[in-house]
Write a structure and sequence with these properties.
The chain is an alpha/beta fold and about 120 residues long. It is about 25% helix and about 20% strand.
């Protein structure tokens, strides 16, 4: 990943809290809904906060994969994680980190769907 653009992330409340720490430990600028005081708020408020701070949203909420409601070209990026609840949190965090490191700056202004072992991008 190049240094020309610094990826910054906003983590939704349906994502394990440990994901914030894992991404910070990897050197990323990350805040979560709890730190922003937005826990329990609706999707639109969370989305607006992420956009205002020019951060990519990391969420498990498939509602954010609606490109008509959240057009990729009009936002900073959305990463929807589709790792089954039956998987350990360590697997979830590994897949998120791998996706970010693999796709890098291409996450910007894209919808990324992260599944175990793969990332799909829509622009």
């Amino acid at each position: 990943m190049g240094d020309s653009v610094k990826l910054r992330f906003f983590i939704d409340e349906d994502v394990p809290r440990s994901t914030t720490r894992v991404l910070r430990d990897a050197g990323f600028d990350v805040i979560n809904v709890h730190e922003a005081g937005l826990q329990g708020k609706n999707d639109d408020l969370v989305f607006v906060a992420a956009q205002r701070e020019e951060r990519l949203l990391i969420t498990c909420d498939m509602g954010f994969s609606n490109i008509l409601k959240f057009p990729p070209s009009e936002n900073h990026g959305i990463l929807v994680v589709r790792v089954p609840d039956s998987e350990p949190i360590a697997v979830f965090n590994r897949e998120v980190l791998n996706a970010i490191q693999e796709v890098g700056e291409n996450l910007l202004r894209h919808l990324a769907i992260v599944e175990i072992g793969k990332v799909r991008l829509r622009g």
